[in-house]
Design goal:
alpha/beta; 2 domains; six-stranded parallel beta sheet; seven-stranded mixed beta sheet; about 300 residues; Rossmann fold
């Protein structure tokens, strides 16, 4: 019998994208609540407890409520896409490629916290350098990023796409998170293996899906002898041998030939590209992650985690 999958919040942006990715699959059975019944608490609780895996596509408080609805006496496994459990040590962090053991942790876990879109790019760049001893304790990391507006959910999509919306956003690009207290900072700090919280400056562009995350570094403040080439080698070694090449470290020669990076290049894909930019022999580098904020940054990652859990 095919495993039963319930997407709690299937009518939201992330849930709809997960359903799209699972359309036509015959190896799982999707449980579904009609949109008109989505506020039926009893039906929702029944669906949660009838599933083999429940994927929560909800705000933080609603996710916490859903977890409480799952009976302690059954074997329902949960993938949560909110920020509620991402630094909870009782939950496996759902970024399988971030180190060699993480896929195994996800396969064995009952509870998996799907990563945020910005942290996926930032952690993907930072953690390998911390693990390799290149990035020292106390280094003042900055993370600068731009996302497609779908990351803001249905409300922001309406604001960006409907000029008649009472709170329409007409700016082609805007900066937010100005108090520097964004909810993704703890996640970047913990899973980036940082001992000092980064300065995170997020922004949104007038494009639906896509993301660029940048981490600039001063080579002289890193481990002695660090070069642009050694940073690239550390990233390449970290992601070598991963399943399905979901994370690609772009060769230095290919990066050097680029004159620009297109934020929407990976739209609709569930992969991520990492770049090392700079001039050989110079004193700085810029590390760049490219991904789809709804792909590897959300729904695509959730399906990848589901597949790992089903393979356990």
């Amino acid at each position: 019998m095919a495993p039963k999958i319930f997407i709690d919040g299937e009518h939201g942006t992330t849930g709809l994208q997960i359903r799209t990715r699972m359309a036509g699959r015959r190896d799982v059975e999707l449980l579904s609540i009609p949109e008109a019944e989505r506020r039926n608490a009893a039906l929702r609780e029944d669906m949660l407890n009838s599933a083999d895996i429940a994927i929560l596509c909800l705000p933080d408080d609603a996710s916490k409520e859903a977890v409480q609805m799952v009976s302690a006496n059954n074997n329902v496994r949960i993938i949560d896409t909110s920020t509620a459990f991402r630094v909870n040590p009782g939950w496996a962090y759902g970024f399988a490629e971030m180190d060699g053991a993480q896929a195994g942790r996800i396969k064995a876990a009952r509870f998996v916290a799907n990563p945020g879109c910005y942290p996926t790019g930032a952690i993907g760049l930072i953690r390998p350098l911390r693990a390799a001893g290149i990035l020292p304790d106390g280094y003042p990391i900055t993370v600068n990023a731009v996302s497609g507006y779908t990351g803001g959910g249905k409300q922001m999509i309406a604001q960006m796409e409907n000029a008649d919306h009472p709170d329409a956003i007409t700016a082609p690009h805007f900066l937010y998170g100005l108090p520097l207290t964004h909810k993704h900072v703890p996640e970047m700090t913990v899973h980036g293996l940082l001992d000092r919280a980064p300065i995170f400056s997020p922004s949104v562009g007038k494009f639906a899906q896509g993301m660029i995350v940048q981490v600039p570094l001063h080579l002289g403040d890193l481990a002695e002898g660090t070069t642009m080439e050694s940073i690239h080698a550390a990233l390449a070694a970290h992601y070598a041998g991963q399943d399905k090449d979901i994370v690609t470290v772009v060769p230095l020669a290919e990066s050097k030939a680029l004159s620009r990076v297109n934020a929407v290049e990976l739209e609709g894909k569930d992969t991520m590209k990492l770049f090392v930019f700079g001039t050989p022999g110079a004193a700085q580098v810029n590390l760049v992650a490219l991904l789809d904020n709804l792909g590897k940054g959300a729904s695509g990652a959730a399906v990848q985690n589901m597949d790992l859990m089903l393979a356990s």
